[in-house]
């Protein structure tokens, strides 16, 4: 019998524990019977599962985690909402969506959901069995749609939410695309110059027998270092290894991740871009969850987990604990340094008017516009900065290589 780790609220206190149950539904039932308001419930791997994992690891079979592109989920969700709105039942809608999906893994996932629903599980329970495809936000929105009898409406909200997420990602990618391409091309050009062109000049200057200028000696020294396997080769290995080790450390060490995310938020332009995108997503997710009838504490918990920035996640969790104590959300947000004053003030207006859902939608739209402005500003500044920097580096190399020729010309002319 598997074990389940759980977190929740009981008698106005946060409680955690582990319990044994045949299925997740049985664990949910037992906890609710015990008066626990559940905020997290996950299956804990038992000894048999651990043994199976170990056996698979020993068989040297590479397990690559499968992912589904967000745009594929968007299309499938939109089709599902359209079919439900037209009057089709859930099972025929799932079957039609499954047949129209072209992603093999998503097709298999929907096929599994179809089988679970056909066997008597609810749609949200069936979606919950595939957390690597559908996150907690998606599952809770589906659950709210089932409870309200307006599943198509909540699927439409999910479509809007996913579309905004895709838009934010594409905006960041488009903002960084040109500078990255420019940097890659310039790096290749510099490498060719330092490895192939500079040595030709150095050999020519060596036959002159005169003292080379300082800038020329500097460039020739760098070229010799990069061409040496124990120099440039070792440097490349160290840099690549350092980057990979840093990324692995970020995944494992939450304290390091917090410090890194805090540093990102303090960076000029980039920090504002990251903050605005996260605030827009937070307002959108929290607004959708509260309007769906998800309890405030659970909605804040899900909203916190929707952001990848540890500093922002910690701030929302701090606010969640304050809300649980009876304090208004706006006053708690106002005390958090990284949250802009405008954000907490707009939340305060929503609390006072009792129209929080519309206000959160307004906040999300406002910070989406701020994000777009940040992306545009970053794009406008990055391009000339990269051009000036790379132009200066290449210009310095060229001048350093031609200085001895200019010097020889002056000697001949004198």
What are the defining features of this structure?
Receptor-associated Protein; 414 residues; mainly alpha; 3-stranded antiparallel beta sheet
Task: Lay out the secondary structure.
Blueprint: E1 3-10, E2 13-20, H1 24-33, E3 37-44, H2 47-58, H3 70-85, H4 90-100, H5 104-118, H6 123-128, H7 136-148, H8 151-206, H9 214-227, H10 229-252, H11 254-266, H12 270-291, H13 296-305, H14 310-324, H15 329-334, H16 341-353, H17 356-413
Antiparallel strand pairs: 1-2, 1-3
Explain what you see.
With 414 residues, the chain is mainly α. It folds into 3 domains: 3-57, Ubiquitin-like (UB roll); 70-163, Up-down Bundle (Receptor-associated Protein), CATH 1.20.81.30; 168-414, Up-down Bundle (Receptor-associated Protein). Helices cover 76% and strands 6% of the residues. The protein contains 17 helices and 3 strands. It has helices at residues 24-33, 47-58, 70-85, 90-100, 104-118, 123-128, 136-148, 151-206, 214-227, 229-252, 254-266, 270-291, 296-305, 310-324, 329-334, 341-353, 356-413; strands at 3-10, 13-20, 37-44. Strands 2-1-3 form a 3-stranded antiparallel sheet. A hairpin with a 2-residue loop joins strand 1 (3-10) and strand 2 (13-20). Helix 3 (70-85) packs antiparallel against helix 8, helix 4 packs antiparallel against helix 5 and helix 13 (296-305) packs antiparallel against helix 14 (310-324). The longest helix is centred in the C-terminal third of the chain and has 58 residues, at 356-413. It is elongated, with a radius of gyration of 29 Å. The N and C termini lie far apart (96 Å).
